[in-house]
């Protein structure tokens, strides 16, 4: 049944995107590993980390688009799910350091020795096993999203109210994770990682594998998202987005649909965070900053919400711009980012991908009109 | 004969006079010689004999003693080993100059090894303080008497009781007498007086500052006989007072935080509550208000320093105008294209806030800017055991003024009437001839302007930096949503509730955890009442 469901998500457009992502997953690591450093096509070390980061952000944007673009839930707290996934992975990586830390304690990570912990806090147990950590990467954000969503959707908190309390949620987590007695590294977070699954994280081979894994995860999530949005469930989600009360009156349990897609999205964000941490080499509470979550929203808006390709394109475009600006014109970056928010909402509400698609559709419609003068039924526009 | 008798009488008188003068001179000399051995005794024996000498000196009542004893405490007294006298010196250099401690006359210089510094331990220090205290208890200067009484209170030396008794009898200042009586009580408790005396002493101690009384009483709570339970009972009394004051202090801190929240949120209550516009750049309006204050103060500092005390009053209307004009420009330039699309408004104004922050950073620099307190806003005063800073008090007063002024504008002016009409039913208001776009722009300007004057107030208690506003935006939204959108009273109640709740949680949970708890509480509260404490009643099903 699941295969049938997933296969239902495939069509020509999805196939093309999937093939593209998979090609990236293969080609970039090969260029990194196989070519000598003086070859112009060689992908250097820093670029691997950078591209890997872009792909993680793309996955985060994709998960955000699933709830915002298809269900009308504007989350200003998706960074929290991302960071929680990251922390779960970070805890695994900390446990893998073992006795190689500065203080050489076989069990306790350095910061715990520093803060005079005598034994491992209970929630650190199990994180020495990869499968457990991997499970937590999806379960912890999923559980938080479930509890949060269960309350919020049941009491029909919608629109800007929901946005604001998601922002409050990530803000509360930011404050919580800054505390040293949380047992998660406080201000400094988790860093100084050595191994993942027995391979050194800094080694070129590991980097290439992590990059490929990120691209694969992105492809898989893209596939799942397109399956969800193309199914009957997806149609209900769009109905909820466009007319929530009407959908409820027809007889759908709106909150259950919302809860499902919300939890799924949070889990994807968690995976993105988990892949982000070993490539960047650090996770600290600033990932919970509400500003980060809202920046993710603009990636989706730039790419085009309600199109699954859009957030991927948007995340990569905006972050490429950020990399370029912060090195070339650092004091202008915030102006550019701010202007992007204003310009996109005012002049490009459909985003890049949405606008291009509309352009093509109109062109083909004009052609169709030129061939046969009978006007076809236009596709209904999604209401705001 | 008569001449002889006369001369005899004269001689007698003369002799008597001479004797009297001599006697007086001798008496003076004796007083001086009396102190001399006591002073020398300070250095010759062990600590016990030193203490004895201190008490002897104190009993002499000589005004010079206090100075000598302070020198002892300050480790400026030395024993001269060659003739076993005590001298005073700063002990600097190889051959320090020495002075007679009583007369202060220089005795020339000696080689350092001849001098032996008189050592002082805590017991000696206490004895010195008690002695100096009793010596100055009857000073004509009230401030000296007060500090003397405090010094004696600290020592709790039973030897000071007689001195205290006479001082209490002579004291005219009520507050100082209470202090002396308390000090006497403390000394009695510390002595081996009978229980009956100690019971009165406990009552006397209760008259003291609650914190001092607590500290003294704790030591006798476990004492045998009647004293222990009595002290315990007194302690419970005092503890109650202390708790009450600390609760009052917490309420005050809470009200103060609440008024800051109110100032930050009240402009938002208009733009978000009345107009339904999510303005994420609201915090930046507050920040701009603070920078206007900074600019005004800079201008005053360089051109007319005499006006510094009025700088805030000058900054207020300016901040209102600058932030208000910004608000109108934002509404006309961006927000009016986005009505009916609240989520997009949120994103656009967020982008705007980034631009404004960076703009201020480019103009004024990223570092914190110093905004000074005018003289009438600096310092603090005490009410009972509470300490209240003037700046906080003025901000509370100011917040209340702003609240009621805004209320009056909305309820009593034609503009307010039109605003409320547009809020209630836009098409109908438009049909009645109200220019709704103009009202929108003005309302947004009003909300932003109020954020600007909030910035003037916040500049007094916060660091003025480009990030000033960002710290308030989430809190402000919480206040507005908690209080109920579209209701100013709700904002007032919401701000004060959250402020007080925050400050009451702080002692138990710590500042950060307290804040987290408040946030979680609000998140849960919104689930229960999605429209806030004071919801507007309406028929709309969609938000």
Overall description:
The complex is a heterodimer of chains A (384) and B (543). Chain A is mostly helical. The model of chain A has no long low-confidence stretch (mean pLDDT 88). Chain A has one domain. Chain A contains 15 helices and four strands. Chain A has helices at 2-8, 12-34, 45-71, 78-97, 110-114, 130-154, 159-178, 204-230, 232-242, 244-250, 254-280, 290-303, 309-328, 333-347, 351-371, and strands spanning 190-191, 195-196, 199-200, 282-283. In chain A, a hairpin with a 2-residue loop joins β2 (195-196) and β3. In chain A, the strands form two sheets. In chain A, strands 1-4 form a two-stranded antiparallel ribbon. Helix content of chain A is 70%, strand content 2%. Chain B is mostly helical. Among the domains of chain B are: 123-245, no CATH class; 254-469, no CATH class. Helices cover 69% and strands 5% of the residues of chain B. Chain B has helices spanning 2-44, 47-60, 65-73, 122-136, 142-155, 161-170, 174-190, 195-206, 210-218, 227-274, 282-303, 311-333, 342-364, 390-412, 414-424, 426-431, 436-458, 470-483, 488-509, 511-528, and strands spanning 77-80, 85-88, 97-99, 106-109, 115-117, 380-383, 386-389. In chain B, the strands form three sheets. A three-stranded antiparallel β-sheet of chain B has the order 2-1-5. In chain B, strands 3-4 form a two-stranded antiparallel ribbon. A two-stranded antiparallel sheet of chain B has the order 6-7. In chain B, a hairpin with a 2-residue loop joins β6 (380-383) and β7. In chain B, α3 (65-73) packs antiparallel against α4 and α11 packs antiparallel against α12. The longest helix of chain B is centred in the middle third of the chain and has 48 residues, at 227-274. Chain B is elongated. The A-B interface holds A 74, 148, 151-152, 154-161, 163-165, 167-169, 171-172, 175-176, 178-179, 244-245, 290, 294, 297-298, 301, 331, 334-335, 337-342, 344-346, 349, 384 and B 278, 334, 337-338, 340-348, 350-355, 357-359, 361-362, 474, 477-478, 481, 512-513, 515-516, 519-520, 522-524, 526-528, 530, 541-543.
């Amino acid at each position: 049944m699941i295969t049938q469901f997933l296969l239902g998500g495939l069509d020509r457009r999805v196939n093309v995107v999937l093939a593209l992502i998979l090609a990236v997953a293969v080609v970039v690591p090969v260029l990194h590993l196989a070519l000598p450093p003086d070859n112009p096509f060689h992908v250097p070390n820093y670029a691997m980390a950078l591209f890997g980061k872009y792909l993680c952000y793309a996955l985060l944007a994709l998960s955000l688009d699933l709830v915002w673009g298809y269900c009308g839930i504007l989350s200003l707290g998706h960074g929290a799910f991302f960071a929680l996934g990251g922390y779960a992975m970070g805890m695994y990586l900390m446990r893998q350091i073992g006795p190689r830390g500065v203080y050489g304690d076989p069990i306790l990570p350095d910061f715990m020795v520093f803060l005079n912990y005598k034994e491992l806090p209970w929630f650190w147990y199990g994180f020495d096993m990869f499968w457990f950590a991997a499970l937590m990467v999806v379960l912890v954000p999923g559980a938080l999203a479930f509890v949060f969503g269960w309350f919020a959707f049941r009491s029909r908190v919608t629109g800007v109210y929901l946005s604001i309390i998601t922002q409050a949620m990530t803000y509360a987590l930011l404050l919580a994770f800054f505390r040293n007695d949380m047992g998660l590294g406080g201000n400094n977070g988790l860093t100084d990682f050595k191994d993942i699954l027995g391979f050194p994280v800094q080694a070129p081979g590991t980097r290439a594998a992590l990059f490929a894994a990120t691209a694969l995860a992105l492809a898989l999530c893209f596939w799942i998202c397109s399956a969800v949005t193309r199914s009957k469930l997806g149609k209900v989600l769009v109905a909820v987005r466009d007319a929530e009360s009407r959908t409820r009156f027809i007889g759908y349990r709106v909150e259950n649909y919302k809860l499902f897609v919300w939890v799924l999205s949070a889990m994807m964000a968690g995976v993105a965070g988990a892949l982000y941490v070993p490539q960047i080499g650090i996770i600290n509470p600033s990932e919970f900053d509400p500003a980060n979550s809202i920046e993710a929203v603009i990636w989706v808006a730039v790419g085009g919400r309600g199109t699954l390709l859009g957030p991927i394109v948007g995340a990569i475009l905006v972050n490429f711009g950020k990399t370029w600006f912060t090195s070339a014109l650092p004091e202008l970056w915030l102006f550019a980012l701010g202007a992007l928010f204003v310009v996109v909402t005012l002049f490009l509400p459909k985003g890049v991908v949405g606008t291009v698609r509309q352009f093509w559709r109109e062109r083909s419609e004009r052609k169709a009109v030129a061939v046969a003068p009978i006007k076809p039924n236009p596709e209904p526009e999604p209401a705001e | 004969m008569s001449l002889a008798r006369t001369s005899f009488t004269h001689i007698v008188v003369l002799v008597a006079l001479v004797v009297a003068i001599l006697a007086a001179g001798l008496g003076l000399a004796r007083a001086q010689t009396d102190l001399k051995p006591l002073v020398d005794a300070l250095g010759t024996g062990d600590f016990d004999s030193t203490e004895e000498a201190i008490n002897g000196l104190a009993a002499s009542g000589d005004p010079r003693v206090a100075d000598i004893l302070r020198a002892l405490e300050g480790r400026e007294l030395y024993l001269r080993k060659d003739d076993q006298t005590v001298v005073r010196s700063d002990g600097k250099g190889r051959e320090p100059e020495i002075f007679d401690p009583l007369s202060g006359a220089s005795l020339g210089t000696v080689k350092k090894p001849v001098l032996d510094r008189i050592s002082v331990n805590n017991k000696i220090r206490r004895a010195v303080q008690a002695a100096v205290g009793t010596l100055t208890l009857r000073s004509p200067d009230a401030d000296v008497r007060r500090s003397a009484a405090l010094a004696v209170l600290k020592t709790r030396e039973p030897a000071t009781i007689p001195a205290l008794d006479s001082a209490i009898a002579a004291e005219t200042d009520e507050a100082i007498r209470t202090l002396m009586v308390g000090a006497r009580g403390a000394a009695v408790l510390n002595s081996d007086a009978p229980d009956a005396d100690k019971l009165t002493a406990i009552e006397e101690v209760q008259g003291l500052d609650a914190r001092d009384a607590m500290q003294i009483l704790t030591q006798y709570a476990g004492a045998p006989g009647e004293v222990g339970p009595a002290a315990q009972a007194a302690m419970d009394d005092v503890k109650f007072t202390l708790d009450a004051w600390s609760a009052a202090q917490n309420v005050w801190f809470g009200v103060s935080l609440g008024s800051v929240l109110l100032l930050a949120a009240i402009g938002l209550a208009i733009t978000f509550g009345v107009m339904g516009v999510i303005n994420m750049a609201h915090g930046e309006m507050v920040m701009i208000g603070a920078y206007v204050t900074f600019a005004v103060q800079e201008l005053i500092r360089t051109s007319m320093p005499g006006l510094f005390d009025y700088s805030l009053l000058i900054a207020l209307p300016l901040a209102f105008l600058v932030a208000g004009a910004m608000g109108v420009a934002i509404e006309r330039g961006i927000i009016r294209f986005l009505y009916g699309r609240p989520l997009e408004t949120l994103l656009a104004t967020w982008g705007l806030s980034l631009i404004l922050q960076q703009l201020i950073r480019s103009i004024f620099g990223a570092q914190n800017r110093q905004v000074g307190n005018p003289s009438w806003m600096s310092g603090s005063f005490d009410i009972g055991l509470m300490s209240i800073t003037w700046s906080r008090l003025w901000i509370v007063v100011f917040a209340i003024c702003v609240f009621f002024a805004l209320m009056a504008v909305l309820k009593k002016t034609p503009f307010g009437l039109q605003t409320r009409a547009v809020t209630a039913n836009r098409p109908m208001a438009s049909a009645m001839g109200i220019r709704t776009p103009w009202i929108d722009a003005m309302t947004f300007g009003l909300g932003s302007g109020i954020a600007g004057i909030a910035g003037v107030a916040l500049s007094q208690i916060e660091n003025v930096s480009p990030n000033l506003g960002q710290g308030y935006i989430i809190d402000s939204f919480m206040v507005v949503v908690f209080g109920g959108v579209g209701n100013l009273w709700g904002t007032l109640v919401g701000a004060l509730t959250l402020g007080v709740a925050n400050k009451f949680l702080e002692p138990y949970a710590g500042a950060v955890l307290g804040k987290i708890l408040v946030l979680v509480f609000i998140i849960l509260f919104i689930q229960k009442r999605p429209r806030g404490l004071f919801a507007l009643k309406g028929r709309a099903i969609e938000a």
